Amino acid sequence: MSDEKQITVTSPLLPDLDEFNSMLKEIWDRKWITNNGSFHRQLEKALAEYLKVPYISLFTNGTLPLITALQAMRITGEVITTPYSFVATTHALWWNGIKPVFVDIDPTNCGIDPSKIEAAITPKTTAIMPVHCYGKPCDTKAIQEIADKYGLKVIYDAAHAFGVEVEGKSVLNAGDMSTLSFHATKVYNTIEGGAMVMQDEKTKQRIDYLKNFGFANETTVVAPGINSKMDEIRAAYGLLNLRQVDSAIAARRRVANIYRDALRNVEGVTFFDDMPGVRHNYSYFPIFIDATKFGKTRDRLYFDMKENNVLGRRYFYPLISEFSTYRGLPSASRENLPVANKIADTVLCLPMHHDLSDADIERVLKHFR
Ligand code: T4K
Fold this sequence. Notes:
This protein has helices at 17-30, 38-51, 64-72, 88-95, 140-150, 201-210, 232-263, 291-294, 298-307, 338-346, 358-365, and strands at 55-59, 78-81, 99-102, 125-129, 153-157, 165-166, 169-170, 177-181, 194-198, 215-217, 220-221, 269-271, 278-279, 285-289, 347-350. By secondary structure, it is of the alpha/beta class. It folds into two domains: 17-240, 3-Layer(aba) Sandwich (Aspartate Aminotransferase, domain 2), CATH 3.40.640; 244-368, Alpha-Beta Complex (Aspartate Aminotransferase, domain 1), CATH 3.90.1150.10. Strands 1-9-8-5-4-2-3 form a seven-stranded mixed beta sheet, with helices on both faces. A three-stranded antiparallel beta sheet has the order 7-6-13, with no helix packed on it. Strand 2, helix 4 and strand 3 (99-102) form a beta-alpha-beta unit. It is globular. It binds ligand T4K. Ligand T4K binds at residues 8-12, 61-63, 85-86, 88-89, 131, 157, 159-160, 181, 183-185, 194, 311, 313, 315.
């Protein structure tokens, strides 16, 4: 094992400690530390503006808005989704007693393949839950056309898609709702945190009730809600991080461009280029290894890098459909999901964050020279 410093797949964007301290002082003075406090309200307003969305509701993480969105829209039966994601996507269905139906993915963006959705629809299907995997926008137009044709709701797990825009418009406005994760490992973080984006004020109101046990006022509970309110400390941290997220994204873009220049002519390694008209957030830098051409399997490369304290991650291997909770489902079979299986077996996410130095980048790229 190398004794060189660890280079991790990501590193959290941290606010300036002195500025954070003075915001903590304000919280201490107010003695209002959660339940729709001042910083919470300020952050919702600032995020709605930054993200170019009409309404947003803050949550304690990126999993609870998924669970809550399904509750709010009374989704039942079967939901069509992708196996190529973090387990939280499908767990949100499971926690609502909904059966996930896996559909294969499109290799050009690692999102659900719209051309395979119709064949998976049954009389029990009520919604589609796609993921903008790695922040790469799904084909939202094709998905919406199918949803409209069959009367289905669309909830986007947009955990990776903070700030992603297509032709100047936020990708978070697609579908009925989108959810975000502000976990420490994300482009924009509030330590733990998340949000839901919705398109009308009535839905925002309903979600705000639902994340506060269902309370509409002191004596009225309108639904069996949950507790998923972001506290003032995380909201303050989030306000500070919002000021520096653009420079963090710019730093990530620089890393992505260096990786691309260095890897473009390496045999057996492929990666994504920017999509035309898209403002990317560079949340992940996945590469795909063709072992025969590269001369090494993905796993060999992963472990060789690890030996040298360069910690890439195999997001998203294994596929969700391979986990014990889901592997018995008919849609979880390898035959149903050939593209997702191939990608899961060949993907490696290289270290990608705002704080990588040229020397760090060189230590990553050494494995390809
Ligand atoms: N939907 C999708 C599509 C998602 O990807 C996620 C979460 C969700 C929903 C649910 O959102 P949340 O409920 O989590 O808000 C991570 C994250 O825990 C998870 O949020 C994320 N997706 C998933 C893709 O990745 P791990 O197990 O890889 O994290 P961990 O602890 O191994 O951290 C990775 C690296 O990050 C470390 O090696 C070093 C660095 N790190 C991490 C933490 C936590 C730090 O430097 N500091 C830190 O505090 O799951």
